[in-house]
Amino acid sequence: MIRAVVIDVDDTLCLTEAVCFELENEVLARIGREPMSRAVHLSTWGQPLLRAMRERSPGVDLDAFTAAYHVVLQEYVMGGRLDVVAQENLEALDELAAAGRSVMLLTSRTEAEVRHLLAPDHALAGRLAAVYHADNTRFRKPDARAFDELLAATRLLPHQCLYVGDSPGDAQAAKGAGLRFVACLQSGIRQRTDFDLHQVDAFIDTFPETVDAVARLEQ
After folding, report:
1. SS3 content of the chain, % helix, strand, coil (to 5)
2. Mean of per-residue pLDDT scores for the chain
3. How confident is the model at residue 129 (pLDDT cuts 50, 70, 90)?
4. Could you give the CA distance from residue 177 to residue 151 in angstroms, rounded to a whole number?
């Protein structure tokens, strides 16, 4: 049985790349920097934010960026512009839990970047067994050791877990750790061919298809 379904946040549980592009350019504007191009944002999408910003805005003062980022982040969250989890995705999480599976998040975001998702009044409250992020794991994707803390804490075997993500780096990390991997293509940023160098157990076009994909893989 697949006992744990572990889910990426960005462009998997919620569609975020386009909004993050706008958000980060707003931050750059507030600290007097020129905007980045969409092309460079897409080419670095999936990297930890501060690492990516070195390419997105070469020479940027990362301390100044970070300070302004957290202000703008809260504005976007409070305005309902970022990290909106669709109702059908919430229902999919409930179906997974009803089938006896633990539902967890594993993301390269920092704790500060996911804090609002963990709030007791958030729609995800009560739906997640655990959340793993850059501040409670020692390694980041695509390193397979990104799953070390999750596997140790749950005492599950890798083959009992499945990861749902949107990038080749997600596939590399999950398969390297021995988990099954489902590639979510809902964002439209990546195609099946982007995963040609990686083993993928199933492709889904929308996140709610996770429920059926997990059931099929368990057979």
Report:
1. 45, 10, 40
2. 97
3. very high
4. 9
Query: Whole-prediction pTM value?
Result: 0.94
CA separation, residue 142 to residues 134, 138, 168, 174, 191 (Å): 13, 12, 8, 8, 18
Tokens of 113: 């970047």
Q: Which domains does the chain have, with CATH numbers?
A: 4-15+85-218 (3.40.50.1000), 17-78 (1.10.150)
- Quote the pLDDT of residue 48: 87
Query: What is the residue-wise DSSP string for 93-160?
Result: HHHHHHTT-EEEEE-SS-HHHHGGGGSTTSTTTTT-SEEE-TTT-S--TTSGGGGHHHHHHH---GGG
Tokens of 5: 């379904």
